[in-house]
Amino acid sequence: MAGEGAVDTVRNMRRRGVLQRIRLASPSLLTRAALAAAAGATIVVVTVAVFVWSGVQREAYAQLDQRLDVVGTIAATVANQSLYEAREQIPDDYEATYRAGPVVIRAHRVTIPELPEGYATEVIDGTEYRVRTIAVPDRPRTTISVAAPTEATEEQIRDERRNTILVSMLAIAAAAGLGWLLGGFAIRPLRQLAGQTRIIDPETATPRPHVTGAREAEELAAAISGMLERISREKQRTSEALHTARDFAAVSAHELRTPLTAMRTNLEVLETLDPPEPDRREVIAETLQSVKRIEQILHALERLAAGSLTATTDYEDVDLAEVLYRSAHEAQRLHPELEVHVHDAEPTVIRGLAAGLRLAVDNAITNAVRHGGAERVELSLRDGASGQDENAEGCVDITIDDDGCGIPLEDRDRVFERFARGSRVHAPGSGLGLALVAQQAELHGGRAFLADSPLGGARLVLRVRI
């Protein structure tokens, strides 16, 4: 018994699963088209059938009344001469009764009760008749009532109504069938789109769907292609960001390992050897220098990370001339011995990152002073298209010239890499200053590059797109 109960339980679970799948299954678009066509046809057919249904009865009785009117008129004309002769004008399938005062004469089998002039429906001896009562001309108080059984008319009405129902059902079925047939042609582009979508490679997001024949399907294909394009871009950005993060972490760990190792060595010396006071102060000074270098590296890394996390909403209207004047003022305050001048800086507004552009210009000036030994720096704005670079159309160049020692030609590309330092650089630093400049140039749709300066040192150009 326990085994049978378990089997019943399994069967019930399977049955519920099947019913659930049936409930969750959505009807196809083709089925919807067929049902919509059938529903539309039903509304039209039912509306027409209602009028036909009532019109059939009116038309059938109108024909019967017309026949009664003809028979009655003929009989009344003859009755004007003789009531008895008028009976012979009544067909066998009709009944008639003549009344002239107290005299009542019937034509055939049934005596029709006295009725007012006009049409009426009466049940006589268990049979329903349609009656037409007419006054006989030239005979006062004389009338003739002509009657015909309604059974044939009612049968005709029933037949026509059955035909109406049959035709209506056939029309609805035909509409559903045509909806199914023509709907298949209508949704063919969607079926093609579904088939093309199924074979899209999730890794490469190709091939892109392309269908024709229906505007909605074409718009859907374009929307899917656009979505795939955005997904591909985001995937590419994610992949690049992951690669950059890995590279960034590896290089950062390498750069931080050197000062940390030096700090550990100095601390071990202080702990184990107990050096004399002059040596002790020297070890502490070296340790503090390593700490300072770590702080510089971490500060620069923080700024680089902030640039990598820039969003579209962070951009605002920035006046480049104002950025140059503020950087010149700050450089003059930090380096009193430095001459800083701003030339050709007309108000130029772009959509950019105010803090990032200011950081890039400040780093360029600091680099010129710290590593190039510059005593004079000139800042200017130039139209990128004024040079010979065809790719500079629609760009503006922020130019920083100095009179320092310059940068060798072979170092000019490498110094923009992270933690890279020029071959002539001896002053301490993180090696991230020019990397920050290059990052800001890229964030603003341009690039950073080095050239010879007319002042004798290096010219750093930060090209941004307007």
Report on this model:
- Helices cover 55% and strands 17% of the residues.
- With 466 residues, it is of the alpha+beta class.
- The chain has 3 domains: 63-157, Beta-Lactamase (2-Layer Sandwich); 191-309; 312-465, Heat Shock Protein 90.
Which helices and strands appear, and what pairs or packs with what?
Elements: H1 2-24, H2 29-79, H3 83-86, E1 95-100, E2 103-106, E3 118-124, E4 127-135, E5 142-149, H4 151-186, H5 188-198, H6 215-272, H7 277-308, E6 316-319, H8 320-334, E7 339-343, E8 349-352, H9 354-370, E9 376-383, E10 395-402, H10 433-443, E11 447-452, E12 458-465
Helix pairs in contact: 2-4, 6-7, 7-10, 8-9, 9-10
